[in-house]
């Protein structure tokens, strides 16, 4: 099972996201559920890394684990909107995956103090 945790601030902005474990839907290297989790996270990280107002710190040190956190360099309404949208994107994607593959993906969301 892949366990995904999305952490947001009280105002809905993305703070961090992490996925741990293998979905176990199919063999490693050909697991469509693992691929879906990976593409959601990698796309979010790629889009955020193109935003000059934030820094993305990622941990991809071991296979089956992917985590990243966002550091805001310039707090603007545009930055907040981008981080809210990215959290919404990830939430929708992982909620959908969990509904379709409940034996393979668990999704939780944590709201952290601050923002």
Description:
- The chain is globular and about 45 Å long.
- It has 115 residues and is an alpha+beta fold.
- A hairpin with a 4-residue loop joins β1 and β2.
- The model has no long low-confidence stretch (mean pLDDT 93).
- The protein has a five-stranded mixed beta sheet with strand order 3-4-2-1-5, covered by helices on one side.
- It has helices spanning 32-49, 77-100; strands at 2-9, 14-20, 54-59, 65-72, 105-112.
- α1 (32-49) runs antiparallel to α2 (77-100).
Question: How is this fold's topology laid out?
Answer:
Elements (H helix, E strand, L loop, with lengths): L1 E8 L4 E7 L11 H18 L4 E6 L5 E8 L4 H24 L4 E8 L3
Parallel strand pairs: 1-5
Antiparallel strand pairs: 1-2, 2-4, 3-4
Helix pairs in contact: 1-2
List keywords for this structure.
115 residues; alpha+beta; 2 helices; 32% strand
Brief summary of the model shown:
The protein is 37% helix and 32% strand. It is of the alpha+beta class.
